[in-house]
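step 3/5: co-fold with zinc ion
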Amino acid sequence: MAFAFTLTAQTPAAGKTTLVIPAGAQAGPNFNVETATRAYLNTMSPEKKARSDAYFEGGYWLILWDFLYGAAVSLVLLQSRFSARMRDLASRIARPRFLTTWVYWLFYSVVMFVLGLPLAVYEGFVREHRYGLSNQSIGAWFGDELKGLALACILGGIVVAVLFTAVRRLPRTWHIWGAILTLLFLTVGSLIAPVFIAPMFNKYTLLEDASIRDPTLRMARANGIPATKVYQVDASRQSKRVSANVSGFLGTERITLNDNLLKRASPEAIMAVMGHEMGHYVLNHVYTGLLFFLVVVVIFFWGMRKLLEWSLARWGERWGIAGVTDPAVIPLAALILAAFSFVFTPIGNTFTRSQEYEADIFGINASRQPDGFAEAALLLGEYRKLAPSPLEEFIFFDHPSGRTRIYSAMRWRAENQ
Ligand SMILES: [Zn+2]
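step 4/5: write tokens
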């Protein structure tokens, strides 16, 4: 567990900016929650707001295009029997079925990587630069993509090969074991992610700046968190986004501040963000998240089984797929997974957003920095639409919108003047 931050002292290293409270949000006998919220929202210029809205709304469409493109690619791989041919080649290279599956997975991952590249370049590089959110050169970006591919080949390959072993050995109940194994993989994944995976992409260091670290650790102790360290990450290697996160599980948990936040936010805002991250920890969001995911995964595997059996009975022969134990079925499974995730988007987002809202409330109470919190919400508003419609927020937002967050902060302030 780790954190960082500063409350009053201004230091040259971090928390450099000064908190500015707009006129309409100043404390006083006439303080009004709605007016104060609007005053904060109005500090963002119309041009900046239009830019952020366009960026975020473009993301709605990308969910659809990603799904449709992925579905089309999967159908082509099946219909052209390209998948069956990759399976034939894989079984010639490696006889044992565990290894055949793994080799198939390597082929499949590389093919999907290559076919997905145009969309990935647009989404991850061109678009990010167009909106001024990226700091990366194309070479550095592509390097990160290759690391991701290597991880998918190795770790993804283990997961897929183990799942197929379960399908072969437990033909009647594989959907139940598949769900349990997936949850197990997810748990192990969140355990090792901050220690082994995240450092492959960024540099994590201990936050040394006492003016930020010490108040953060005080807040942690005050809330029963046994933290002695705060981490910082060089997120500016990739982007300009302000962010912080809690990661890890069973002893590897930590709070990490990104350097953009340290550079661009006031001490009050940094403290409010730290309070939020501590909220995730104190409210056991990792554990409730895993429980939620268990239910989702059980439903998903049951549906996966039904849909695989139904599709293979109809088209299995045409696709050259022997059955559910045949790795050539992977594009079909990927298509079902993509369709499920697509439909599941609002439910998943609503679960996450509810947790984020809880962490917001916790953070405002723990830090007692409603204006710092509003400032942080505005910084996040650079890449997340500030004031969406309620339906938009329900479907697309995995965090509360800036307006919801600022409103929560001003409501707290109205009662704590
Ligand atoms: Zn959060």
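step 5/5: annotate
Residues 1-13 have pLDDT under 50 and may be disordered.
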